[in-house]
Amino acid sequence: MLRLRSFAATFAAACCLAAAGTASGYHTRFVADNCNYAAPTPTSYITRDGSTTVALRARFEGYQWGGGCWNDNDRDDSPGDPVETPGTGGEGGDCSGFTFKVWRESESTSNAGFYQWGMFRFVHGPYVAADFKNGVGAPNVTASKSSLIRMDAFASSGHIGMIYAKNADGSDQIIEAKGEAYGTNIWTRTYRGSSSYGGVRRTGWSS
Amino acid sequence: MILMLLLAAVSCSLDDERAPTTLMDGSAARVVPVTLDGVEEPTVLTRARIVRVGKLERGSAAAECLGGRARGSWVSGVAVERMGVTSESVTLRETSGRALHACDDSPGDRDTDRRWCGGAYGVLIAGRLRDPRLSILCSTGDGTLLGFVWIQPGAATRYVAVEQSGFVEVYETAGGLPVRVSTTTHVDLEHSSAAFSVSEHDASGSLLRTYELRAVVAG
């Protein structure tokens, strides 16, 4: 903290502000009781099938701004998180943190290697949706939307979702951590046709 | 001999307590024109330039932040270009008033030949950010991670002071936009977080409030 001289007339309120939010009364113990900061396991390759499995473990597990970690019990164990409030300790990831974990990336932006993060490992990673959209970081590259396939992603300035499958009509099923009111799930989305969204791909898939 | 040693010791002490004298672009750092109440460490005044989005100069930081994107349609009003000791930023507001955009830069390495090492997008609710939009993608020349956030200053705030290592970096409010600040202290890569020691002062330097802002990478 800044060293303060003694002052007479000016009232200074020393306070500790978490990131802006209105969650003063809301807090869960999901992260505190379940999650850890264990080191990831380096792996020599990743496959789209493998990452799909990683992603499906987070399905139905909720959403946490700045998160996160989850337990694969097909239930949001901390529903009703306040919007855009990271300190509430709830279950789930946010869109960019979910993508970071599914794509098994390193916390170092210059490292394109593969790292398996446990479900209970609380990690978000250094990227937000806009960073993915711009292909920032060694493991992330922009790609034409027409070229995107399963486990590639559509990203806007404020959101990212990964392709899970194609519907019969050609539309995309997207697996995404959508928001506090929606959790993490699979929905049909029209991101491919939206000018707000660009294509992004994780580098190095083996298959 | 003893006198020489004493002089040397005093000189080293003075050097340690001097704030940086140049900003990231090599320009001379200015002195804060008022005494900031409660700030004991040496201070450096960063530079802020307000530019009109509709009249951006080619090659200006704001123009380079917008890059090839269409100008004048989705952003309007003013942009604020800032230059600090180890950081540079641009802040713009969308014409809709619903979001802010920032471009962040620093002297450090980056994965590709990008003009900007980081940036931010922040949704405005009733004109205010819910989240300060931390970015930790940038680093100084020696590889130290930099954290950038937006500070939403109080109505009376003229100077936002942010603790650095050995000095305090001071930002003037400008353009009615949140102030994009940076720090090299307390940036935590493992937890994707950073903590900023901040004080806000009015135009005369009087202390309005002091706080620690903790932010995480999110969204």
Q: Let me know the average pLDDT of chain B.
A: 90
Quick one: which chains have the greatest interface?
A-B, 47 and 49 residues
The radius of gyration computed from the alpha-carbon positions of chain A, rounded to a whole number of angstroms, is 19 Å
How does the helix and strand content of chain B classify structurally?
mainly beta
Order of helices and strands of chain B: HEEHEEEEEEEEEEEEE
Instruction: Please state the structural category of chain A.
Output: alpha+beta
Question: What portion of residues of chain A belong to β-strands?
Answer: 15-25%
- Gyration radius from CA atoms of chain B, angstroms: 18 Å
Strand order of the largest sheet of chain A: 6-11-7-8-9-10
List the keywords.
heterodimer; A: 207 residues; alpha+beta; 6-stranded antiparallel β-sheet; 11 strands; 14% helix; 23% strand; globular; disordered N terminus; B: 219 residues; mainly beta; 6-stranded mixed β-sheet; 41% strand
Lay out the secondary structure:
The complex is a heterodimer of chains A (207) and B (219).
Chain A: E1 14-17, H1 30-34, E2 41-43, H2 48-57, E3 68-69, E4 92-93, H3 95-102, E5 114-116, H4 129-133, E6 140-143, E7 153-155, E8 160-166, E9 172-179, E10 183-189, E11 198-202
Antiparallel strand pairs in A: 2-5, 3-4, 6-11, 7-8, 7-11, 8-9, 9-10
Helix pairs in contact in A: 2-3
Chain B: H1 2-16, E1 43-45, E2 47-52, H2 61-66, E3 75-83, E4 88-94, E5 99-105, E6 118-125, E7 128-129, E8 135-139, E9 145-151, E10 159-163, E11 168-172, E12 179-183, E13 187-188, E14 193-201, E15 207-216
Parallel strand pairs in B: 1-11
Antiparallel strand pairs in B: 2-3, 3-4, 4-5, 5-6, 6-7, 8-9, 9-12, 10-11, 10-14, 13-14, 14-15
